[in-house]
Structure formats: structure tokens, C-alpha cells
Batch of 2 targets.
Target 1
Amino acid sequence: KAGVTQTPRYLIKTRGQQVTLSCSPISGHRSVSWYQQTPGQGLQFLFEYFSETQRNKGNFPGRFSGRQFSNSRSEMNVSTLELGDSALYLCASSRGTGENTEAFFGQGTRLTVV
Amino acid sequence: DQQVKQNSPSLSVQEGRISILNCDYTNSMFDYFLWYKKYPAEGPTFLISISSIKDKNEDGRFTVFLNKSAKHLSLHIVPSQPGDSAVYFCAASRRSRTGNQFYFGTGTSLTVIP
């Protein structure tokens, strides 16, 4: 079956602009989580959506937001971009029903803010 | 607060030898542990996992060991191959009605020297 799909793969934006990233999870997966990866910082958890509701949230400013649609696809939005937002943004999907299971990642969106 | 820690940012090993990657965690409520492998410009790929009811799980060349009393897990790769060169992330989660939030370490970059 198809894996996790993230679009676009690469983005270049200017400071102050906003950006929207998209993630389509594996069919049947209802949980979508977003992570930011920067050098030396590992994977920083942004938020998790399950059945169109934000269920968990990491320690990021309000400029980072997201949503999930009824088909489980998710979008992440970053407003008023800063240079420090340049990173690889990863989306992961899982069944999310509480049992122990792995999360599957997309290839990520590389965002560069100039 | 980093609940999952990988204290070695990098590791170099000769081809054919054993690679041992280590990970420590602080939250005793974690009951599921995972290892992911990541190549540059790609999303992490699930490698192997272990439930807290076990102390060892093996899959081919990869073995994960869990020491709950020490809150420590390790990934052994035997024999190491050049294609294993990548960044390895350990992750931990716990079952919850509000979903499985995954906590990731900062990664260890493994280089297998031919």
C-alpha cells in the first residue's frame, strides 16, 4: 500500500511569509504527527492530529498550526516565517488507537527561509 | 526536557564488525521503544521495536536490547555493512487513550568504513 506522502518536497520562502505543508497518511491511519528536524536537535515534536482533532502539542510558538481533514490528510501552516524555521519538516502516520505500534514517516519537506 | 537521549552524536565502525548504538530514557511510563534509520534528505525508516515486556528483540542483523532497570536500550548491528551508514534515532512511546506520542532522541550518525 502507498506510504506517507508529503508535498512539496522543497520550498524556499522569504522571511515574513507563510507556508502550508501537506501530508497524506497511510490508508487506514488516523493519527498524523508533525516533527521539525534541525541539525543537532533531533526530531522535535510539533503536534499530533487524530480524527480531525489536535490531540497532543509540542512546545512551539503559535505561528505553527495544523489541521486534519475527514480523510485524515493533514496540513501544517507556519505564519510570519523566521530564518530559524528553516528545517526538514516530517510527517508521520500511525493507527493512533492506543496500542503500541510504529509510526511511518514521509520523506519530508525541506523548508528554506531566506 | 529531553526524555530520550542519545549521548553519542557519531560512531565509526569497520565493515564486518559490530555496531552498538545506545539510548537512555527518563520516563518509566514508556512501554514501547523503536529504532529508526535515516538517510540524508529522506524521512526516517522504521527499523525494529521492542515492547517493555521483553528484554531482547532480533531481526536479522539487528538486535535491540532493553534494560528497564537502567532505563537503557541499545541497538546492535552485526555484521555492519557500508549501507548501514546513516543516522539512527531511538524513540519511545507509551500507550494512552490520548494516543501514542513518540519521543525521539537526537540521533547517532553511524559510519561504517569499508
Target 2
Amino acid sequence: RKEVEQDPGPFNVPEGATVAFNCTYSNSASQSFFWYRQDCRKEPKLLMSVYSSGNEDGRFTAQLNRASQYISLLIRDSKLSDSATYLCVVNSGNQFYFGTGTSLTVIP
Amino acid sequence: DAGVTQSPTHLIKTRGQHVTLRCSPISGHKSVSWYQQVLGQGPQFIFQYYEKEERGRGNFPDRFSARQFPNYSSELNVNALLLGDSALYLCASSLGGALYYGYTFGSGTRLTVV
């Protein structure tokens, strides 16, 4: 079983839509969780950390459900510039495991 | 401030050759990790170094090796290259608390093995 699993999409949504991505992880002892954004042929960039209580950064909301071992990312009022691949990242011991990424295209 | 810098940006090698990739972390960052990203996949962990010591190793063959220098820069070496080694190799650095703050990635070295 993979450490981290994501729906690869693609998600194609109109501007202004709300879109949610989920990611499940296998190691219940995982302590830290992140969402990264990766543009085509570029490096991943940290979007936000995910805290147990959930956290929000502008139009982005991240949540963690330890009981069900999944994390989520909600993007409200989607912009064209949100088009990218979103990677969830979970630590296991000293290693960070990346999901395969979920592709988002925001359509005018 | 300079981010994580990697060199070279692109590289073409022949099967069986050896390659060395280089990484300079953000100033003050003591932890460096290497990842391999194959097209269409998420980055796969190769190595982590902290204070010049190997702190973690992913599921990669012994053809892959790395080291960290006193100035915290790092090299990734791959011997006996295979076609399947073609990928984007990413270096990431952190202050040491990656568990809480995550990593900052360099723009990567795109390796093509022919």
C-alpha cells in the first residue's frame, strides 16, 4: 500500500468555483502534513501546512482527519492562476512522502 | 536572498555513465534532501542529510550516493546510469525543523539518459 494516495484528477473547473482535493495516508503515526503546489516543469512550492485544528490562508483551507487518515484542501473562488498540480505530503519517520499530485485546470 | 540552487539545470548522459548533481541550500539551512521525480509522479525520497550526516535513505539502489559538505552544500552521485534514471532531481533544504516547516525546493536538474 502506498504511503500517500491522491486522486490524480484532472479537475477542470470554471473560474469562481469551489474545488476540494483529498489525500489519504497509511501511517497513523505521521506527524506533519503539507500541501505543495507544482506548476508545469517547475519545482514544488509549499502552499500550506496542515494542522490538526484545520487552517485557512485566504481562499485556501486545509483540514486533517486523523481518525480517517486523510487530509483535504479546499480552494474557494478559483482563479485561472490556481491551475497547477497539488501535491499532498505526509511525513513517516524522517521521510516525507509525496502523493502523485492532483491536476487542476481553472477554465475562463 | 538566494533560494536553493542546483546545477546543472539540464543534463544528457549515456547509459552506463556516471553523473554528479550539485545543490546549495538556502543560507543557514543545515538539512538537505534529494528527491527524484519521474514525469507524472510525485517526488520520491532518495536521501536526507543533516549536519553532514545521512539521516535517511529511500528505496533506491546503491548506485545512488550522496554527501554533504561542511558548508552544507550537497552532491548526489549516480553510477552506471540506466534509462529509468531519467527524471527531474530535486534538492530541498530546511532549517532543521522540516517536520514543522516543510522543505524549500530548488528548481531541479533534469537528467535524460539515452
